[in-house]
Write a structure and sequence with these properties.
GO terms for molecular function: N-acylneuraminate-9-phosphate synthase activity. This protein is of the alpha/beta class and 346 residues long. The protein folds into 2 domains: 222 residues, Alpha-Beta Barrel (TIM Barrel), CATH 3.20.20.70; 60 residues, Alpha-Beta Complex (Type Iii Antifreeze Protein Isoform Hplc 12), CATH 3.90.1210. Helices cover 33% and strands 14% of the residues. α6 links the parallel β4 and β5. The radius of gyration is 30 Å and the shape is elongated.
Length: 346
């Protein structure tokens, strides 16, 4: 099956394909990313709403540069990086329109009040707050005042900072909040995922939880699903080989399909702690071992290990009764393969 899975049929988390800067400056490529996300089975597509001027300053000094040792963006100025990575605002409507046409939820991450105003004009259904903006409580309150559901990534944050962000969202009027565990490192390694934070956040703040996953592959996201993730966000590209600011830690279409299927399977596999034997095990139950006549016997023969054995399938006395059977006398004859019953024994 291709295409998005409806929320009614979905047991796993909402899988969000994050486009970020993987459009590589081309609207056509951005639209192709949306199509590929839908075809891979994603449930939502997300972009980011900023310009270089709204997110930083055009200043070339050490404070405004990515550190030299950064694996992907070392020594680049923030202004230059964000100028390359941003999604032009005039692209938002065609991206959202196509996503909705294909059955995807389409939303964005705003980075300032002007972005929120713009996204409200486009009637986005929910908002995402990026990890670094978790300390921008005025922005969180502005987004919360829209009344839309909010997703907040907690990468870089202390528990106190998460609590302040949650308070700002609730004070602003947000009634539907999801916190995403996140390691704000690109790419991140599984050792730093600390997924056990998720149930702790759910209990501590009384909110839904999920994962913004910057690790390579899908294993960490599948594990997060088993810990109760309701949202999984992964960066998505058409091809890592084609490059781009986020390509190195983004999934390709085949991998995104595997992510959707893997997370759905993980959610279904959780099942119920009260369910033991299942209807699917009917045939296996029939084939469990029991006691059978293992050699032809005549009336008066004594039951022994030579003529009675515990073998598959079921149908005879339970194996636990073997010690009670040995030494008893056969009342009637029986051929090899007869299920043993007390009626055969004296």
């Amino acid at each position: 099956m291709t295409g998005p899975v409806s929320s009614a049929d979905r047991l796993g988390p909402m899988i969000v394909a994050e486009m970020s800067g993987n459009h590589n400056g081309s609207l056509d490529r951005a639209l192709d990313i949306v199509r590929a996300a839908a075809n891979a089975g994603a449930h939502a597509v997300k972009i980011q709403t900023y310009t270089a001027d709204t997110i930083t300053l055009d200043v070339d000094s050490p404070a405004f540069r990515v550190s030299d040792g950064h694996a992907l963006w070392g020594a680049r100025t923030l202004y230059d990086l964000y100028r390359e990575a941003h999604t032009p605002w005039e692209w938002h409507r065609p991206i959202f329109d196509l996503a909705r046409e294909l059955g995807l939820v389409a939303f964005s991450t705003p980075f300032d009040e002007t972005a929120v105003d713009f996204l409200e004009e486009l009637d986005v259904p929910l908002y995402k707050i990026a990890s670094l903006e978790i300390v921008d409580t005025p922005l969180i309150r502005i987004v919360a005042q829209t009344g839309k559901p909010m997703i907040i990534s907690v990468g870089t944050a202390s528990i106190a900072e998460v609590a302040a962000a949650v308070d700002a969202a609730i004070d602003g009027g947000c009634a539907d909040l999801t916190l995403l565990a996140c390691t704000s490192s690109y790419p991140a390694i599984p050792d730093d995922a600390n997924l056990r934070r998720m149930p702790v956040m759910a209990d501590m703040f009384g909110v839904k939880v999920g994962l913004s996953d910057h690790t390579l592959g899908i294993g960490v996201s599948v594990a997060a699903t088993a810990l109760g993730a309701s949202v999984i966000e992964k960066h998505f590209t058409l091809s890592r080989a084609e490059g781009g600011v986020d390509a190195a830690f983004s999934l390709e279409p085949t991998e995104l399909r595997l992510l959707v299927e893997g997370c759905d399977a993980a959610a279904r596999a959780l099942g119920s702690a009260s369910q033991w034997a299942t209807p699917a095990e009917t045939e296996s139950l029939r084939l469990r071992p029991s006691l059978y006549v293992s050699a032809d016997v005549r009336p008066g023969d004594v039951a022994s290990h030579a003529n009675v054995r515990s073998v598959r399938p079921g149908g005879g006395l339970p194996p636990a009764d073997l010690h009670r059977v040995i030494g008893r006398v056969f009342r009637t004859g029986a051929v090899k393969g007869t299920p043993l019953s007390w009626d055969l024994l004296g």
